[in-house]
Design a protein that fits this description.
mainly beta, four-stranded antiparallel sheet, about 45% strand, globular
């Protein structure tokens, strides 16, 4: 049995090793014309009478608007978990539609899945969307593995769930949260994290068919943080904003960097922006800036703030607040921001509040520039 197990591990490790692919990023530098209104637009996506626990939303642009996904259940980690979606046509959000659920994923995987979480959408082609998610096999998120469902009609119908082999060791304890990135040869970089015993960020490298071909630990420490949001800044350079452990001090966002296309990463180190232990969502803003959404408080998820940083992640400028809790009431905390640029100069965020609603905010590059200029003038 030991010989067979060792042989299986060797085979899996070999299959996860890429063969001569270049470690360079497909860097997309968006244009940022100053477009749109100076006001933000916000609404609640979920129905007003919804009673279930909802969380972990993501969003993607479609030819006719937006497509948002999240998970819902009786409570976090419950057996009746579902991945659900809604569409935005520019004026209103559609009724919720079920993408898949724990029972269906159990059938597709051929193993018992207890619960689902953190769906992350990725546009594979004009009509094809991949939806990654975390699937818990036992009680607690530390027993998760990552699943994938695919749609070839922009999210209207979905195929069966597939298992991503992220580790040869029982494929245990990998979860999703952040926007995927692309390599220059068409491979996909999926930001993930390991949670069992030690929490640390991970970059999974997938081939064009969605098979894991490499796995890179981001940072060389032990319990260093999790849920990385990766932003390529050049062909071989990128920075990742990392959610800190609640026990870690100082109480601030962490950054890790790569200079070799994601093969190796520096030890995550703190920067001068507070963090209560909540996730960060970051995207490329223009040729010289990154835009990030984060909880601007060392202890409480009291607001979601936008900030601009240079490509080295060394200077930061807050530009405005897009969501905040009600009168300091911690039960209405604003959590899990997920930020995208849905069109040139147009940005969208989805987030949870207070774990019973999924919310949407739209703002423009005009709003970002106005906030940046106003704060510069104040300084």
């Amino acid at each position: 049995m030991l010989i067979c197990s060792a042989g299986l591990i060797a085979v899996l490790l070999n299959k996860m090793s890429p063969q001569n692919e270049p470690w360079t990023f497909a860097v997309s530098v968006p244009e940022t014309p100053v477009l749109g209104a100076l006001d933000t637009r916000s609404e609640v996506i979920t129905p007003p009478d919804a009673k279930q626990f909802v969380h972990g939303a993501s969003v993607i642009a479609t030819p006719d608007g937006l497509f948002a996904t999240w998970y819902r259940a009786t409570y976090e980690g419950a057996y009746d978990a579902e991945l659900v979606s809604s569409r935005f046509d520019g004026s209103q959000w559609s009724p919720e539609a079920v993408v898949t659920n724990s029972a269906r994923v159990s059938h597709d995987f051929g193993i018992t899945i207890k619960s689902l979480a953190n769906p992350v959408s990725f546009r594979r082609s004009e009509n094809e969307i991949w939806l990654f998610f975390a699937a818990s096999k036992l009680s607690g998120w530390a027993t998760c593995e990552i699943g994938l469902v695919r749609s070839f009609d922009n999210g209207r119908t979905w195929g069966p769930a597939e298992r991503l082999q992220a580790s040869p060791f029982l494929n245990m304890s990998h979860l999703t949260k952040s926007v995927p990135i692309l390599f220059s040869d068409g491979r996909i970089g999926l930001p993930a994290y390991h949670e069992m015993n030690r929490k640390y960020p991970v970059l999974l490298v997938l081939d064009e068919n969605g098979r894991v071909v490499d796995r890179r630990r981001m940072g060389d420490g032990g319990k260093v943080g999790y849920q990385p949001s990766i932003v390529p800044t050049g062909p071989t350079t990128a920075i990742a904003f990392v959610r800190r452990l609640k026990s870690r001090h100082p109480q601030s966002i962490l950054i890790t960097r790569t200079a070799d296309g994601g093969k190796t990463w520096t030890t995550p180190s703190p920067i001068d922006l507070p963090n209560p232990g909540g996730p960060i969502s970051a995207i490329r803003y223009d040729a010289s800036h990154i835009l990030l959404a984060f909880n601007d408080d060392p202890k409480i998820e009291r607001n979601i703030t936008l900030a601009l940083t240079d490509l080295d992640g060394k200077t930061f400028q807050r530009v405005g607040v897009v969501a905040q809790m009600d009168n300091g009431n911690q039960s209405s905390a604003v959590t899990y921001p997920y930020l995208i640029e849905s069109a040139p100069g147009q940005f969208d965020i989805v987030y949870s509040q207070p774990l019973k609603t999924i919310n949407h905010v739209r703002f423009s590059s005009a709003w970002v520039q106005h906030g940046s200029q106003s704060r510069t003038a104040q300084q």
